[in-house]
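We treat protein structure as text, and this decision shapes the records that our systems exchange. The tokens are whole numbers drawn from a learned vocabulary of local backbone shapes. One such record is reproduced below, unchanged from the form in which we store it:
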Amino acid sequence: MIAKNTTLGADDGIGIAACLALMESDVPAGRIESLFTISEETGMDGANALQEGFFTGKTLINLDSEDEGQLFIGCAGGEHTDAYFSFKPERVHLGSKKLELKVDGGIGGHSGDDINKHRANTVKILADFLAAELTAGFQLISFVGGGKSNAIARECKAVIATPDSIGIAGRFGAYANKVKEEYAKTEPGLNFSVAESKSRSKAVDSKTAIALISALASCPHGVERMSPDIEGLVQTSTNLAAVSMPEKGIIKVATSQRSSVVAELDALVEKVAGIFKAAGARVECYSKYPGWNPNLKSHILQQSVKSYRKLFSQEPLVLAIHAGLECGLFLEKFPDLDMISFGPTLRGVHAPGEKLELASMDKFVKLLDDIVCNFK
């Protein structure tokens, strides 16, 4: 199942649907409370606003995971770090030609689940090229790419004015070939294009343009450290998510950092913030959320494993995840909660290609019903 020109809404509309269906059903279960929160993807505002007494249950099943057959008992914490550059418009130099440089067709993906899968970050790719061209004397008119702060940028474009349009176009083509070779196996749809631009906008003043491009090129993106305790688990990472021009004279850079180790998260946020502060930007760090430390003695974990074995005659995988779940905030506000997270198989979340595997949905529903009906 897939949506057209938008995300499917499976992350996490399918969890909401499962809760509603459970409340309307006549399964022989005890008292059930369903918790729905807002803005989980953009700051966990709903979970942050929870107050004592909002619910009374001591066991929580979080239906916001993306791989059937996997039971999650831990997650990373995270924080958003945004930078704002103020610029003065300046006239485009006489004799310059305006070009639009574009990188698109990236797979993108979730900045938690997919950050270690060699996905192309189009913002980083284009910024690196322009940083190498700073000595060519072009003017930057616009730079826009990426979208959500927790998604890997799938497309990015910049409009520049240059007296050496043929030279820059040629070097961009050569650069494209190298990048596409690097990502040949993981990003077969990655595309580079150069076209004449009809933009009538003025240029960003040269001091700010150089500072912006240099900071984007210096800003880290990807895995910073793998877990020394759990094989294959990312411990710390950062995502150079998006660049936008939301209002006249302002360029916004959105980034997000994740880690299951608080000290590493704080150090990485400070590092990213420092790069942009040194470039003259105003920096905002916000929506920090805690991680969720695994509890292998969890009662709901034992119940869930038992149900999975009984229903499907196989062992589920018990894991921690690098993505951020609201469970960390739930536990911070309700320290006695016993929690687990699971869901059907989803792919390409946070992007128009998001998919829900229908066969996994049947197993997900059976597992949820069995746990709820047999919970002791």
Remarks:
- The chain has two domains: 10-76+296-374, 79-289.
- The mean pLDDT is 93.
